[in-house]
């Protein structure tokens, strides 16, 4: 099963810059257990609209069955890892 973490962000978003190091740590530790996809909402508005992203940062955890969890705002590592685990990572 493929597990994806979609990170909806923008270059001008301060809280997004706070979220980045947390995501990098998780990716280093979990490696190939999931795919991290960074979505710049300024460049990929169609994708942001598809997922109904209205605030930044927004993190969406999904697997082959669909969206498992969604976080709006800076999210702590433990919460992200729990959602990834629930999704099958």
UniProtKB/TrEMBL annotation:
Listed SUPFAM superfamilies: Thioredoxin-like
Pfam families listed in its UniProt record: Thioredoxin
Statement: the UniProt record of this protein carries the keyword Kinase: no
Record's protein name: Thioredoxin family protein
UniProt superkingdom: Archaea
CDD domains for the chain: TRX_family
S-S bridge residues: 13-16
Residues marked Deprotonates C-terminal active site Cys (site): 7
Entry keyword set: Disulfide bond, Electron transport, Redox-active center, Transport
Domain Thioredoxin positions: 1-89
Organism per entry: Halorubrum rutilum
Active site (catalytic residues): 13 (nucleophile), 16 (nucleophile)
Contributes to redox potential value (site feature) positions: 14-15
Keyword presence, Ribonucleoprotein: no
């Amino acid at each position: 099963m493929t597990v994806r973490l979609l990170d909806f962000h923008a270059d001008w978003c301060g809280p997004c810059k706070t979220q980045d190091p947390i995501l990098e740590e998780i990716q280093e530790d979990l490696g190939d257990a999931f795919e991290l996809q960074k979505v710049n909402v300024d460049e990929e508005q169609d994708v942001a609209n598809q997922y109904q992203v209205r605030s930044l940062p927004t993190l969406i955890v999904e697997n082959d069955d669909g969206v498992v969890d969604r976080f709006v705002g800076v999210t702590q590592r433990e919460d992200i890892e729990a959602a990834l685990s629930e999704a099958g990572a």
